[in-house]
Design a protein that fits this description.
By secondary structure, this protein is an alpha+beta fold. Helices cover about 45% and strands about 20% of the residues. About 30% of the residues are buried.
């Protein structure tokens, strides 16, 4: 096992950066760079993107959280749209990419851990109605509420929905789930977005609750 691989295996941190390597592994920058290159060539670590790495499956003590990694691949960002709707159990379809809302321009990353897709969603407060979550392995990630994930979906996919009927028909979301959202959350989201299509959808959704 490569010395670099052994170090991060022992620390139980399967995802790490160049900065982590510099502060944790003795030696010069040149020698550390050589360790990284050899570990990648030997299949012990995976190159997620420039400067971000992950131990290969045989060298991990536990699973890697794709949701936690998503914030390290490209940020500021949070999990949203189809991935968040699937996470919350609002849509029945399996989702094969980790879809995220981004503060910056949209970008896709095809990595050994899967596809990460980021879409820019303009808002007044980027993390409004986004929850900080910790999974059973102590991985921290940021997840949009179901209502926010759906509002982001409307913006990104440029759909012109006047209310919840279109969401039910297009995404097969159960009406009971849509009607369980509080009027206060919908009012806050309506104020938070600047896009007219999103505001129209959220207002129609809000009206359906009365």
């Amino acid at each position: 096992m490569n010395r670099l691989t052994e170090h991060f295996f022992k620390t139980s941190h399967p995802v790490f950066t160049n900065a982590d390597v510099s502060t944790s592994v003795p030696g010069s920058d040149y020698s550390r760079h050589g360790l990284v290159k050899r570990a990648i060539a030997e299949g012990e670590i995976l190159n997620i993107r420039r400067g971000l790495y992950c131990l290969a499956p045989p060298y991990r003590k536990g699973p890697v959280s794709v949701f936690a990694v998503s914030q390290r691949v490209y940020g500021p960002s949070y999990v949203s749209m189809e991935t968040a709707l699937s996470y919350h159990g609002w849509i029945p379809e399996a989702v094969y990419a980790c879809t995220c809302a981004s503060f910056h321009n949209g970008k896709d990353f095809d990595t050994p851990l899967g596809l990460f897709s980021y879409k820019r969603v303009p808002q007044k407060t980027f993390f409004a109605e986004v929850e900080r979550r910790v999974d059973q392995d102590d991985n921290v990630f940021f997840m949009a509420s179901p209502a926010k994930a759906l509002a982001d979906y409307v913006y990104v996919h440029r759909v012109n929905w006047a209310g919840i009927d279109e969401a039910v028909g297009s995404l097969r979301i159960e009406p009971e789930q849509l009607l369980s959202v509080s009027p206060e959350e919908l009012a806050e989201l309506t104020e938070n977005y600047t896009n007219g299509r999103v505001k129209r959808f959220l207002k129609g959704w809000h009206n359906a609750l009365s």
